[in-house]
Amino acid sequence: MPAPIRLRELIRTIRTARTQAEEREMIQKECAAIRSSFREEDNTYRCRNVAKLLYMHMLGYPAHFGQLECLKLIASQKFTDKRIGYLGAMLLLDERQDVHLLMTNCIKNDLNHSTQYVQGLALCTLGCMGSSEMCRDLAGEVEKLLKTSNSYLRKKAALCAVHVIRKVPELMEMFLPATKNLLSEKNHGVLHTSVVLLTEMCERSPDMLSHFRKLVPQLVRILKNLIMSGYSPEHDVSGISDPFLQVRILRLLRILGRSDDDSSEAMNDILAQVATNTETSKNVGNAILYETVLTIMDIKSESGLRVLAINILGRFLLNNDKNIRYVALTSLLKTVQTDHNAVQRHRSTIVDCLKDLDVSIKRRAMELSFALVNGNNIRGMMKELLYFLDSCDPEFKADCASGVFLAAEKYAPSKRWHIDTIMRVLTTAGSYVRDDSVPNLIQLITNSVEMHAYTVQRLYKALLDDISQQPLVQVSSWCIGEYGDLLVSGQCEEEEPIQVTEDEVLDVLEGLLVSNLSTPVTRGYALTAIMKLSTRFSSVNRIKKVVSIYGSSIDVELQQRAVEYNALFKKYDHMRPALLERMPIMEKTATNGPTEIVQTNGETEPSVLDTKHPPPVTQPANQANDLLDLLGGNDVVPVIQTTLPTKPASAGGELLDLLGDLSLTGGPAPAPAPSVPTSQPPFLLDGLSSQPLFNDIAAAGIPPMTAYNKNGLKIEFTFERANPNPNIAVITIHASNSTEADMTDFVFQAAVPKTFQLQLLSPSSNVVPALNQGTVTQVIRVLNPQKQQLRMRIKLTYTHKGSPVQDLAEVNNFPPQSWQ
User: Fold this and answer.
1) Among the three residues 580, 615, 640, which one is the final residue of a domain in this structure?
2) Which of 18, 272, 289, 599 gives a 20 to 30 Å CA spacing to 780?
3) Could you give the 3-state DSSP secondary structure of residue 213?
């Protein structure tokens, strides 16, 4: 058989291939020749064939049939064969294949070989792909080589020991005696690998960490010698002595000094020397400085040293290298909470990074800019961030708008500035703001009583300029409906009032109803605004005509609103002023979350969950009943809450008595934002006659409701009446799970005030299947002899993805049919 071609010739031949198919054909032909040679046990050219096979493996072609040939080469006595054999083993074998166990004896023999280079090959292979079984069998040999005087073997043995510790952590103590003299070695290679070994041991064992803290002075001495040593051609990299070893020592010092005062004190001086004496003109020096900064910020360092570290990061921000600027911004973002004032000094440089062309740097700079906002710089920072919002890419607008909203809410110097800032965001990035921005801004405007005239005038002007930003249009429509009389009367004192007639205002709102840019939600806002103006303007006939037109709209929600508003004009005209009166001030129930407001015919009302109720409106009893009849839907809150318990505080105490571990101090579940609901409630005016509305609805069945929908868990209630006793409501809960993992150990608990009686039956299961593949059902029976409005507090506990979850919620929006 002719001699196989050499590796160099094979590489040259493969590189001449013009297509992938031609290269594949060459590889297959050569693989066939190599297989034939292996079958014939050709020892002469086995090394050459395995070398060619490794090259093919590097190109991505299968080479597993050469695994056993690698073992034969390892067993050979020739160094060239062993070298290729061990290289092949590292590339073609791993601990998932049982073949690697056949190597254990060969590696053990080579670890005791008389030639250091053969021992080095065995150490490299064991440190690269040794399994836990191999590491247990050969750890003794590795530990023996770690104590040898040969620096070539010691550095390889130290790295191999790192792999052994990772695979078998309990063998860590075996290497402890050998580490005593490692740091006294002069050879930089041994020092480097020794520091890596010590770092691994400290990270994996608190006991080792305490043991090695006594080495801090020795590490400081090594680092000082590296800084002060003169030029050494063997270790010099861009004028710095062995930067790789310096970085490793700084990393180990960071681990040793964390949460330890004595160790931190011992390394403060050397860290200051490194920070001030390292050359920053080359990337090598910047790498050392960055590691120094991380160490300073992680240990219990002095305040002056921390300021020095932040100043280094500030210099990084001026570097031309984008990667260094990104690293500096990321590090400053981590430290801004602990060293806020020091980071503030670099505020102008950070803001300049918002103009960077690199999107990653811009995002980090934006996040850091928001972290730097406080009450002293809010005006200047918002000016820069709003300018950034005007010119940034669409991918940044949503996050930037949310950040501006949060910062303005937290640090606004005045209500006028707050309103102006949010309106600026809505006009420039209205399409990108979060869904809760509309109700939040409405709540802000409602509570700023002295700013109503100014706000409605500003929003009216903005509406004339642009109707494409839907959140802006929705807020404007709501404000015009509420405060249209202030707009027409020209009562604005903050700026020059504009002259607007009633017809001009109605023209704008009617334009929103027919505009192609308006969404169904926006049209609902506009129609409700027009309806409100019927009590504020004199053009009632025109408003009646507009409302009646939309009684036949193809949009069911808009049609329903129009039909209900038409009924107000006809049968309930005496109630219209009370229904459409101006909104009271909304109370916030959470300091950091969105204001809890609920939907009332497209308007916003204070949540019934609030502990502070608005003062009741004094009206005749029959008019109050008419109001309740009119607004008796399944997702609305009565304006006059006559069915609330007379003592809300004691009711809360009764709930607390029933479920002692349920805290009543937390806020209830967030209510929906004031937008047009997607689900269609029953027509509110169906069946209006001399009989009460509720009886007709009850005859048609009680509509279901969603009691809880959070983190993928959805709880729905369905209702029915017990035939023998109409005072008993039977509620069936249906729990579904839309996440990708099952919810196990599911427990549903409920509590009601003591005027009710509750019976909770056993659930169908305690596992809620993932991806809505099934539901868990449970029956609740509630006895309500006094026919009071039903209130319930629920507690949910379950395990999801291995973590226990517990949540509380109040359910107060039961359909009136369920308790009347």
Assistant:
1) 580
2) 599
3) helix
